[in-house]
Amino acid sequence: MRPTRKNAISFALITVLLDSAGLGIILPVLPDLIQELTGEPIANAARWGGYLTVTYALMQFIFGPLIGNLSDRFGRRPVLITALAIMAGDYLIMALAPVISILFIGRAVAGITGATFSTANAYIADISPPEKRAQNFGMIGAAFGFGFILGPLIGGVLGEWGTRAPFYAAAILALCNCAYGYFVFPESLSLEKRRPFRLARANPFGAARQALTRPVIAWLLGAVFLFQISHFVFPATWSFFTKEAFGWSSRMIGISLAVVGVGFVFVQGYLIRIILPRFGQVKTALAGFVFNIIGLTGIAFATGTVMIFALMPFSALGAMVMPALNGLLANQVPDDAQGELQGMIAGIGGLTAIISPLLMTQILAFFIGEAAPVYFPGAPYLTAAALAAIAIIPFSIGLRRGK
After folding, report:
1. Is the pTM of this model over 0.85?
2. How far apart are CA 46 and CA 160, in angstroms?
3. Cα within 13 Å of Cα(194), Cβ side
4. What is the Cα–Cα distance from 150 to 22, expressed in whole angstroms?
C-alpha cells in the first residue's frame, strides 16, 4: 500500500534528522582526536582533517551515481537501510581507532554508503508534485539543520568526557535510524516506475554524459558544483578556524554549529515555504547566492565571537540555494530518473568535497602557519565567497538555455 504524502514526508525527515545528528556529534571533537592520534599541532591537524574529508568525498564521488541508480532499480527503502547499517559500523570503527589510518578506513566505508541524504531527496521527488518539490526539498534541508542543532550540542557535551564518546553516540543514532527504516519506512518507488540497472550510467562519467545531453541540467549542475565547493568550507575548516582565530573550545564549537542549525531549520523548514510561492525558484536561488556571499565575506574578516554570531543569519538565509536548485533540476527529469539525478548531485557533492577540503584546509594552514606573508585565518572564507559569486554565472546561463 502506498503511504500518504504526509506520512511519507515525515519518514524521510526523521531519517535525515537522525543521520545529520550523528554526523554533527563528531565535529566538535575531530580536531582534538586528530591531535591525540598524530601528536601534531593544530595547523597540521587541519591538513589531516582535510585528507579525511577527501577520503570520504572520493568514495561518494565514485559510488554516488551507483547508489542512485540502484535505488531507481530496487527502490529507495533497501538502499537506505543497508547504508544506515554500514554507517553505524563506521562510527564504531572510528570510536575504536588506535591510529589515524583506521580513521581513514572508516571514512572510506562511510563514503561508499553515504546515500541517505540523496536517497531521501529521491524519495521526496517520488511523492511530491513538481510545484511542491523545492519546498519539500527545503524541509529535508530543515531536518538536516535540526539534526545539526542536536548533534553538535550533544557532541560538544560528550566531548568533555573524551574524544571517543561522541562516536559511540553517533553509532547508536545510526542503529536507531536503521531499525526505524526497517520496521517503519515504506517504499515510495512503485514497481512500474523502476527502470533497469545499467552500469554505463551508474558511474560518475556515465552520469556526466547523461547530464551533458541536456544543456539546462549541465549548466545548473555547474552552479551546484561551484556552490558546493564554496559551501564545504564550513565542515572542512570551521572547527579548526574558530579554534585558531578565537580560541573556541569543543563546547563552543558545538554551540556555534547548533546555532547555525537553528537558522537552517527556520529558513528551510518555514521561511522558504513562504518565499518560494511568492518569488519562485529562480529569484529564491539568486537571493541565496547573495546572502552566502555577504555571510562568507563577513566571516573572513570577523574580529571576534560576537561578530561571528551576528553574521550567522546571512549564512542561514544562504541555505535557500540548494532547495531551489534541486527543485529546478528535479523538474527537468522523469520520475524513473530521480534517483539517478540525486545520485549525480551526490556525486558532485563528493567531487566538491574532495576539492574543497584540500583547497580550504591548505589555505587555512598556509595563512596561520609560520610562512604566511600575513596572518589571515579567514582566507578560506573569502575564497568561498568568491566561488559563490562565480556560481551565479552558470546558473544564469542554464536559465537562458531553458527558455
Report:
1. no
2. 21
3. 14
4. 9
Residues 6+ apart with CB under 8 A from 386: none
CA distance 145 to 31: 22
| DSSP designation for 336 | G
CA atoms within 13 A on the CB side of 208: 10
Q: Which residue has the cell 547530464?
A: 211
Total residue count of the chain as it appears in this document: 403
* Residue given cell 587541519 in the structure block: 46
Helix-, strand-, coil-residue percentages of the chain, each rounded to 5: 85, 0, 15
Model pLDDT for residues 321-361, shown as the tens digit of each residue: 988 888 888 777 666 666 667 667 777 777 787 788 779 98
What number of CA atoms fall less than 13 Å from residue 268's CA on the CB side? 30
Place of cell 582565530: 245
Query: Which segments of 154-196 are extended strands (E)?
Result: none
C-alpha cell at 149: 542543532
**pLDDT digits over 44-90, tens only?**
777 787 788 778 777 877 777 777 777 777 777 888 888 888 888 88
CB crowding 74-93: b at 16 or more within 10 Å, else e = ebbbebbbbbbbbbbebbbb
Closest CA relative to residue 349, chosen from 205, 216, 232: 232
